[in-house]
Amino acid sequence: MAIIERLDKWAKSISNWIVWIGGAGVILMLALTVADIIGVKIFKTPVPGAIEIVAFLGVVITAFGMAYTQAEHGNIQVEFFVTRLPKRARAACGIFTSLLGLILFALLAWQSVRYGINLQQSGEVSMTSRIPFYPFVYAIAFCCIPVCFVLIVEMMKNIMKVVNR
Fold it and tell me: How many Å apart are CA 14 and CA 4, to the nearest integer?
């Protein structure tokens, strides 16, 4: 059990570190939005590419917050039926949902890398600011890795609950 606890601590530590990047994205998004509003209202000139940059920051905020949200169980869970099950059956459901999540995020990471490679090779950039898309797609792939790690740890915890009555 000590190994699972150490892995859990490590997974939460990683997710706590990368969520700061998402937090910085929120601050940058706020600052850019305020600057754009001030630019439009006072100086009659918007910040060039502000909408695109805010969209890219939305990707940063979402991607870098995924592992933290999973580690802290911040996602919406429908437990209406599961809470009525015995403890071992709940743990079995936890194994199943963790496995499904692991498969989903592993596929998302893999496909994001493939898509990022395509975007990088084609030179796809945003319309106004000419910001390349591929670093943000690679960021999504990178951020799926800690989510997978958190899900593996959750699955291991639930396996232990099923095995250890």
Answer: 15
**Where in the sequence is the domain holding 118, given as residue range(s)?**
2-163
Encoded tokens for 31 = 């600052």
CA distances from 131 to 33, 47, 55, 135, 140 (A): 18, 15, 11, 9, 16
16-57 pLDDT, tens digit each = 999 999 999 999 999 999 999 999 999 999 999 999 999 999
Count of C-beta atoms within a 10 Å radius of residue 64: 24
User: What CA–CA distance (Å, rounded) separates 108 from 111?
Assistant: 5
**pTM for the full predicted model:** 0.92
* 75-120 pLDDT per residue, tens: 887 777 888 899 999 999 999 999 999 999 999 999 999 999 999 9
Count up the domains in the chain and report the number: 1
Q: How far is CA 8 from CA 26, 43, 85, in A?
A: 27, 51, 25
Instruction: Measure Cα distances from 163 to 64, 86, 120, 150, 154 in Å.
Output: 34, 14, 47, 20, 14
